[in-house]
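Reminder: ligand-aware prediction takes two inputs, not one.
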Amino acid sequence: MINIKNINSRLIEAQYAVRGKIVLRAQELEEKGKKIIYCNIGNPQALKQKPLTYIRQVLSLLEYPDLINNPAAEKFYPKDIVAKAKYILEKNPTGTGAYTQSAGITFIRQAIADFIKKRDGIPADKDKIILTDGASKGVQSVLTVLLKNPNDGVMIPIPQYPLYSATLTLYGGKLIGYYLDEENSWQLNEKVLEESIIKAKSGGINPVAIAVINPGNPTGAVLSVDNIKMIIKFAKRYNLSLLADEVYQENVYLKGCKFVSFAKAMHEMGEKEITLFSFHSVSKGFLGECGHRGGYFEIRNIPEDVFEQIIKLQSVSLCSNVDGQIVTYLMVNPPQPGEESYELYEKEKNGILSELKAKSEILGIELNKIEGMSTDVPQGAMYAYVKFELPHKKGVDPLAMSEDERLKYEAKRDSDYCMSLLEETGICVVPGSGFGQMPGTLHFRTTILPPRNEIEDLVRLIKDFHLGYVKRMKEN
Ligand SMILES: Cc1ncc(COP(=O)(O)O)c(C=O)c1O
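Here is what comes back for the chain with pyridoxal-5'-phosphate:
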């Protein structure tokens, strides 16, 4: 039998906090009958968000195509839904049960290119778009392509979504962390980027790429266009490829904030030398179709022979799943005004987005009022990254510790805190050490996804818990 000592040690080393120890404990407690409020993962439909009728109606017809040509279909489905299902089947006559081209179905790639053109007012090429099983698989493909030697490194934000750190550990690349500026609504800071890359280079690391998450997970920040342009210039200065994780592009709530894609900013700057990989997904936005595993990445400025290698890589796993491809098509091709399903679609979409906005405000404003806790009202995405303070035992100063000691000390403090929060209140959040945080600070990440009445309870429960926890620490 294989054993833990002779399997891939990089797998053992890789960490993925959003599904870690605390979540396992939450599931155990739930089995014993405790009510758990899952705030650990951006999985909207697991938290009672209803799927859009449009998506599920089209999918249901395509999964059972005999229905499409049955006159009964028009009784149960709006006309435009039946017409759309017919069109998709015509364009992809092999249906949902057959493999497709490695990069994905051609008319869907064309629809994505049209969506980018319309969103950004820039040209887009269907032949540089690859459909994937969610954005995660796209990021992993791109990292496979970029990491040539064990000392190749990728710049990753701190805090970050752990897909990046875990994949780098798995694939044997080096992580070059750069801190986001909490004091400046979590934007990127040029001086910090410069310091991180210089330190990495002087340590023998060869930086090959920079990953940016906009809107941010776990920070909820929406990057300004100036910040994006600064990052593009920085990438060019150091000859880095750019990975733009834009899965939350529809999730922008705060007035005055606007999503701007890296593709658009690069186009405006006339930048033609650095390679850009942009990722999008059906999991977030107002679709929340995480289980359907759909998404794509678009590439700009790539030599043809390299692109062929990426297609070869995709072909090793044949193609992304066809339902995911279809949901991606429906995401970029919503019902149009005048079509029968338009009104309901708009109502459901606006309902979901306005609930998310309201919940982000309640969480941001109310958690910020708790003594010893601070957070911004999330500008976008689906999370609040909350800073909290705990007393230290006499004579303990984390900033005087070695980096390893400090990381262990802080990871224990925020994990113990989140575990106690779970045990006492049933609220499941993720400790900041799973995403990264400034030395000497502690955080947890909560989603804004639970239903509104639960969010109100959640704030009250967190407040009572926090005050009690700090009091107990002071007494011991
Ligand atoms: C920033 C970010 N990128 C990528 C993903 C993965 O999304 P997908 O479900 O499309 O793989 C997530 C999921 O939470 C995310 O937060």
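The chain has two domains: 9-49+346-475, 106-332. The CA atoms of residues 151 and 204 lie 7 Å apart. We will return to this case in the review session.
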